[in-house]
Design brief:
This protein is of the alpha+beta class. It is built from 7 helices and 18 strands. Strands 2, 4, 6, 7, 9 and 11 form a 6-stranded antiparallel beta sheet that branches. Strands 1, 3, 5, 8 and 10 form a 5-stranded antiparallel beta sheet that branches. Strands 13-12-16-17-18 form a 5-stranded parallel beta sheet, sandwiched between helices. 40% of the residues are buried.
């Protein structure tokens, strides 16, 4: 009986110590307030949207284009993203780039049709700004923004007054550029997409401007590659350029600068046919954007022959348009070829170099 008593007393002492530990922990937890997460739906006026977006259902804004982005200011240490993926062909999953405050951006991928993704964790309990950007292209499928879960949603500063639109092909999309996780030849095509870190958004952020990417891989001015049945002049007025569907309202975004980077997929072309189509395209663009500065770009991945052709043709196109009275037009030819990414595309380091080149030209041209 004496031994049994000793064991009982020992257990009692251990239980007492455990109770003290639990009470102490509860008291410590009580001193650190835990904010309850609330759901803020996509139709909340505190969200900022930029890009070609279908708002026919305000609670589920839908977008296809790479580079479409959403900003929000939230409070608390945790933030969750609620987003639907079209899951095109039953297997495609989009990549999304996330940036919190000025921290290094990172990419995440959807895993199904409905997604609840933790995009911020263990932050300070203060205020934070999140940028959510579609990294992948139209043919990977649409995304529907459902909302955010966080402690509180707060008003953002106004959007930058400056606006730029970047028209182009796979280069402008940021395709085949990001080798940080999956190398070339591995995974699936969209694994190397990164629109957020492509040259266009990088230029815009450097110049404190909004951006829109109107770009489709493989597309050309008069000839598209890889069996693509559309050209840019045919689909430019659509929300979903790749599928040539849903009319876009150009009043929603009037850029100060429009860059046009076409020609890589056209290849070597007859001057009359190519230049005539380019002049017609510029005339049509001018009906949408009466005040914008147009900048005609050579292809950053063009070889010597293509670059020489584009340099010659773009100069002639510029002279022709200016002779017709449109003076808000200029040309920029890249200083070298950029092709260290997959399939001879620019990689992310080269996109930064391209952005440095183009950004300096735009800054000087626009006196920004």
């Amino acid at each position: 009986m004496f031994m049994k008593f000793r064991i009982a007393v020992g257990d009692t002492i251990k239980a007492f110590h455990l109770m003290i530990l639990v009470v102490s922990t509860l008291n410590l937890t009580a001193r650190v307030p835990q904010m309850e997460l609330k759901t803020f739906t996509a139709d909340n006026q505190l969200f900022q949207y930029v890009g070609r977006i279908d708002f026919s259902n305000p609670a589920r804004p839908r977008f296809w284009s790479p580079g479409v982005y959403i900003k929000a200011k939230f409070k608390g240490s945790v933030c969750e993203l609620l987003v639907n993926d079209q899951e095109l062909w039953g297997k495609n999953h989009n990549y999304i780039e996330i940036q919190i405050d000025n921290n290094k951006p990172f990419k995440i991928q959807t895993t199904g049709e409905e997604n609840r993704l933790v995009v911020a964790d263990k932050l300070s309990q203060g205020e934070h700004i999140i940028t959510i950007c579609k990294n992948t292209e139209s043919n990977i499928g649409y995304l529907e923004f459902i909302g955010l879960r966080c402690a509180a949603l707060l008003p953002l500063p106004p959007k930058p007054a400056r606006k730029i639109e970047f028209i182009g092909n796979s280069i402008t999309c940021g395709a085949s550029s990001d080798l940080s996780d999956i190398p070339c030849g591995k995974g699936v095509w969209q694994d190397q997409h990164n629109a957020y870190l492509s040259y266009g958004p990088t230029v815009a952020r450097k110049l404190y401007a909004q951006w829109v990417l109107s770009a489709v891989s493989g597309i050309g001015l008069i000839h598209s590659c890889c069996g693509l049945p559309i050209t840019m002049p045919q689909v430019f007025d659509k929300i979903e350029l790749r599928g040539d569907s849903l009319q876009w309202d150009f009043k929603r975004y009037q850029p100060d600068v429009v860059t046009i980077c076409l020609g890589q997929n056209d290849g070597l072309q007859d001057s009359i046919k190519f230049c005539g189509a380019y002049v017609d395209f510029i005339s049509r663009l001018r009906t949408f954007y009466p005040s914008a500065e147009f900048i005609l770009l050579s292809s950053p991945m063009g070889d010597a022959k293509l670059t020489a052709m584009l340099k010659n043709y773009l100069a002639g196109i510029t002279r022709k348009v200016k002779a017709k009275g449109d003076k808000k037009l200029s040309t920029y030819v890249y200083k070298k070829q950029y092709r260290n990414g997959c399939d001879s595309h620019p990689d992310l380091a080269e996109h930064k170099q391209i952005a440095d080149e183009l950004g300096s030209f735009i800054k000087k041209k626009m006196h920004w």
